[in-house]
Design a protein that fits this description.
It is globular and about 60 Å long. The chain has five helices and ten strands; from the N terminus they run βαββαβββαβββααβ. It has 246 residues and is an alpha+beta fold. Helix 1 (29-41) crosses helix 2 (74-84) and helix 3 runs antiparallel to helix 4.
Length: 246
C-alpha cells in the first residue's frame, strides 16, 4: 500500500533553473524534493508538480504530490522535508490525500503575481522578487491594456511553446494595482503556456513605455506570432501564488 501525499511548496527560485528535473548537476526544485524523499523513504520517488516554473521564478503555491510506501503522518513528513531541504525551499503544507489525487491534472485554476519596482534604485531586500523597471511608465494605459487579455483567446503571440500545442487559453482575472513605485499584477486562469505570463506582462510594460500602441493589442493577438508581442518580462518578478482544486 502506497500513500499519496499532497504538498504546497514555497521557494525563492533565484538559484534554481526552474521546477523540472534536468540532471547533469543542474539545480531544480523537483530535484531537491526527490533528493529529500530519497533520504526519507529510502527509495526513488516520482514527484508530480502542478506547474513548471521558469528559471528564477518563485512560488507560494506550487502544489505537488507523490506516492511513498512508508507509513508516516503528514506533519512528521513535513518536518522531515524541511530539515533536509535548502533554506530557500520550504514545505508550507503537507497532507495525506486520496490515491486518485493528481496535482497536475486536478488543478482547476492557477493564480500568478507579477511585481514591478518602478523607481530609480531597488532595495536589496526586494531585488530578488521584483522586476526593476527604472524608466517612466504610463500606468493608466497599462491598466487599460490588461482588459485585452481577459477571456478565451489564442495566445500564440505570447508563448514560445510547442507550435503544435493547443494555444487557446482562458484568463478569468487580470488585475493591476499600483502604489508609489510598486506595480502588482494578479493573473488567474485554468492553465498557462510557456512564458505566457511573462510575455503578457512584457507587452503591457511596452504599452507603458509607448513601444506598443494600446489599440494595437488585438492585432498582436490576430498575428499569432511571438515576434509581434515584444518584450519578455524578467523572471524574478513572477511568483506562482496559488493553485486551486475541487
Amino acid at each position: 500500500m502506497r500513500n499519496n501525499y499532497k504538498i504546497i511548496i514555497h521557494f525563492d527560485g533565484t538559484e534554481y533553473k526552474g521546477w523540472q528535473y534536468q540532471g547533469h548537476g543542474i539545480r531544480t526544485i523537483q530535484e531537491e524534493l526527490v533528493n529529500a524523499l530519497k533520504i526519507i523513504s529510502k527509495q526513488m520517488v516520482t514527484v508530480t508538480g502542478s506547474s513548471r516554473t521558469d528559471a528564477g521564478v518563485h512560488s507560494t503555491g506550487l502544489t505537488a504530490n507523490f506516492y511513498i510506501g512508508i507509513n508516516i503522518d503528514a506533519e512528521s513528513l513535513q518536518r522531515a522535508f524541511n530539515s533536509l531541504l535548502p533554506h530557500d525551499i520550504r514545505i508550507a503544507d503537507c497532507e495525506l490525500v486520496d490515491p486518485s489525487f493528481n496535482s497536475r491534472f486536478g488543478a482547476k485554476s492557477k493564480t500568478y503575481i507579477y511585481r514591478i519596482f518602478n523607481g530609480k534604485v531597488t532595495s536589496p531586500f526586494d531585488s530578488r522578487f521584483y522586476s526593476h523597471v527604472s524608466y517612466p511608465l504610463n500606468k493608466k494605459k497599462m491598466k487599460k491594456a490588461t482588459k485585452y487579455f481577459i477571456g478565451e483567446k489564442d495566445f500564440s503571440s505570447f508563448t514560445s511553446d510547442d507550435p503544435h500545442k493547443n494555444r487557446i487559453r482562458t484568463i478569468s482575472e487580470f488585475k493591476m494595482k499600483s502604489k508609489g513605485d510598486e506595480i502588482i499584477f494578479t493573473i488567474k486562469g485554468k492553465s498557462f503556456l510557456r512564458y505566457m505570463v511573462r510575455n503578457m506582462v512584457g507587452a503591457i510594460i511596452d504599452v507603458g513605455t509607448g513601444k506598443i500602441d494600446l489599440k494595437k493589442i488585438p492585432e498582436i493577438f490576430e498575428a499569432k506570432d511571438r515576434r509581434a508581442a515584444g518584450t519578455t518580462a524578467d523572471p524574478e518578478g513572477l511568483t506562482l501564488a496559488s493553485v486551486k482544486y475541487d
